[in-house]
């Protein structure tokens, strides 16, 4: 096996004798040839046995497969072994050959569960398991043109890797053999080298690290679950409860503890090399998830009895529907998503209409099964929403990126909005009493958080601008006021004053009591999302 060097010979023999599978042997020898890991398990074992039997005329041979990308290495030790150890008087002492032992590599027979990877690089690299994963993917009925594969490994694998390496290190030291390197190819990386081509061929799409479609496998090994527990006693600071974790023994916590624990303490608590388990790992979960899809548009609201989002107080629904629900019902069904998140450029009260070009909104669709929509399909979806209710209408419905949504949120505070308010006064008015409002420009307000929203917003004084106003006389007690304001201005409070919490206000400007009868949003001046042709 030309990817191995003469200096690897004693490591190969020690690991095989301990019950380590051929692929893990290659990992411990830092073999970076991806193709080599894909060879059948039995062939690899035979090759390793032949490698141990063969005579060595050269002390080192070059690694093959130089076209493979450099592999990730897992650091097992943090102390240097000493550069001089490599020289060792210029010779590598010999171990008894496998042939001399009578029963070559008996502990690494094909039916034996590996004492390091617990079978992950054995049974779970075979075609049967690949087909099982692909059947799960197909039954989930996702649209995808590529995939990224992820794997979750039992944390005790890191403990077993450390134990295997310390076992080799001890035996090499006892035999007076040099051992300079202290890193191995990561198990996850080796597994993906093997599994990626098989999944890609079976699914008919390429593996792509940037793909939004993820296929994940979660492995567990109940038989050895408690092997990490001694680390909690040796390094208690590494294991702290977390709200979203079922166990403190996470992979990262175990790795952190292994970095801190001293070698002699580790050897007191764990056998080196580790023993072979009775059972293989379990593939607990095979899951598929798609990255979120984002849909944006503008909505008009024509009802004065429709909240933007579900109106539920103390678990009781106050109104039967909402803008959010009327839109999301159709998007959730078409995209076949698990859930959604709705956002918009500001919001209107339940009794306020939104007219003109509408209010920009965006919806994040979480884990959608369907992700590919043509412009024509999006137009039909928009029409379906509009046909379903006379309370709202949607326009410019389109797919957008997560980054583009930031442009909508900018408009909440930075842009202007235009309103039309129907105002009542307690004292009779004439046209000349309200004419002066047309001349007021850039009126600066100080608005304390309104009483009606104080339960959900912090108490603060906000400075806002009324850019322009235009009053239209109706009768002695009513007039319509059209306003262009800074985004975030509380219009109702500007009219009635909110018990003096907004200053100045229409009541104080007219020197009489004023209240608002109707309010419409006529425009939200946010240039997003892009306008689409009808």
From TrEMBL:
GO cellular component labels: mitochondrion; nucleus
Recorded catalytic activity of this chain's protein: uridine(54) in tRNA = pseudouridine(54) in tRNA; uridine(55) in tRNA = pseudouridine(55) in tRNA
GO biological process: one example: tRNA pseudouridine synthesis
Domain Pus10-like C-terminal residue range list: 294-525
Residues covered by the Pus10 N-terminal eukaryotes domain: 114-288
GO molecular function, one term: tRNA pseudouridine(55) synthase activity
Pfam families, per the entry: Pus10_C, Pus10_N_euk
InterPro entries noted in UniProt: PsdUridine_synth_cat_dom_sf, Pus10-like, Pus10-like_C, Pus10_N_euk
Taxonomic superkingdom: Eukaryota
Location in or out of the cell: Cytoplasm; Mitochondrion; Nucleus
Keyword annotations from UniProtKB, A to Z: Coiled coil, Cytoplasm, Isomerase, Metal-binding, Mitochondrion, Nucleus, tRNA processing, Zinc
Enzyme Commission number, as recorded: 5.4.99.25
Family: Belongs to the pseudouridine synthase Pus10 family.
Annotated protein name in UniProt: tRNA pseudouridine synthase Pus10
Species of the source: Thryothorus ludovicianus
Gene for this chain: Pus10
């Amino acid at each position: 096996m030309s990817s191995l060097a003469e200096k690897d010979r004693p490591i190969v023999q020690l690991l095989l004798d301990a019950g380590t599978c051929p692929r893990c042997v290659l990992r411990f020898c830092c073999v970076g040839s991806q193709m080599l890991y894909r060879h059948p398990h039995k062939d690899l074992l035979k090759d390793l046995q032949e490698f141990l039997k063969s005579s060595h005329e050269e002390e080192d041979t070059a690694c093959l497969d130089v076209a493979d990308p450099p592999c990730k290495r897992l650091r097992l030790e943090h102390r240097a072994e000493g550069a001089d150890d490599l020289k060792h008087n210029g010779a590598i002492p010999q171990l008894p050959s496998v042939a001399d032992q009578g029963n070559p590599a008996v502990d690494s027979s094909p039916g034996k569960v590996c004492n390091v990877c617990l079978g992950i690089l054995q049974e779970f690299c075979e075609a049967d398991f690949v087909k099982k994963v692909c059947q799960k993917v197909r039954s989930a009925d996702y649209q995808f043109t590529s995939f990224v594969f992820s794997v979750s490994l039992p944390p005790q694998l890191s403990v077993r890797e450390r134990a295997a390496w310390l076992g080799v290190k001890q035996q090499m030291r006892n035999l007076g053999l040099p051992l300079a390197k202290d890193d191995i190819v990561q198990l996850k990386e080796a597994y993906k080298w093997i599994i990626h081509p098989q999944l890609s061929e079976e699914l008919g799409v390429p593996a792509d690290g940037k793909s939004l479609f993820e296929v994940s496998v979660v492995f567990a090994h109940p038989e050895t679950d408690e092997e990490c527990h001694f680390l909690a006693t040796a390094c208690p600071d590494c294991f702290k409860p977390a709200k979203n974790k079922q166990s403190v023994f996470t992979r990262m916590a175990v790795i952190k503890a292994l970095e801190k624990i001293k070698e002699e303490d580790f050897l007191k608590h764990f056998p080196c090399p580790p023993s072979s388990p009775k059972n293989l790992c379990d593939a607990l979960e095979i899951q598929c998830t798609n990255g979120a899809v984002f849909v944006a548009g503008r909505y008009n609201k024509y009802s004065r009895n429709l909240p933007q989002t579900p109106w539920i107080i103390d678990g009781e629904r106050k109104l039967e529907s909402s803008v959010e629900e009327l839109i999301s019902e159709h998007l959730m069904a078409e995209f076949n998503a698990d859930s959604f998140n709705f956002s918009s450029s500001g919001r209107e009260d339940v009794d306020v209409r939104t007219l003109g070009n509408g209010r920009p909104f965006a919806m994040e669709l979480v884990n959608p099964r369907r992700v590919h929509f043509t412009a024509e399909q999006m137009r039909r979806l928009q029409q379906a929403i509009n046909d379903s209710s006379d309370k709202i209408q949607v326009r410019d419905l389109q797919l957008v990126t997560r980054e583009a949504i930031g442009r909508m949120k900018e408009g909440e505070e930075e842009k202007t909005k235009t309103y039309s308010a129907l105002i009542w006064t307690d004292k009779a008015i004439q046209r000349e009493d309200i004419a002066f409002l047309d001349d007021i420009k850039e009126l600066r307000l100080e608005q304390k958080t309104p009483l009606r929203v104080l339960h959900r917003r912090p108490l603060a004084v906000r400075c806002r601008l009324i850019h322009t106003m235009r009053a239209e006389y109706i009768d002695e007690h009513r007039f319509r006021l059209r306003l262009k304001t800074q985004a975030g201005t509380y219009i109702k409070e500007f009219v009635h004053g909110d018990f003096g919490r907004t200053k100045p206000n229409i009541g104080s400007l007219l020197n009489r009591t004023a209240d608002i009868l109707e309010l419409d949003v006529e425009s939200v001046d946010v240039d997003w999302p892009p306008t689409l042709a009808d």
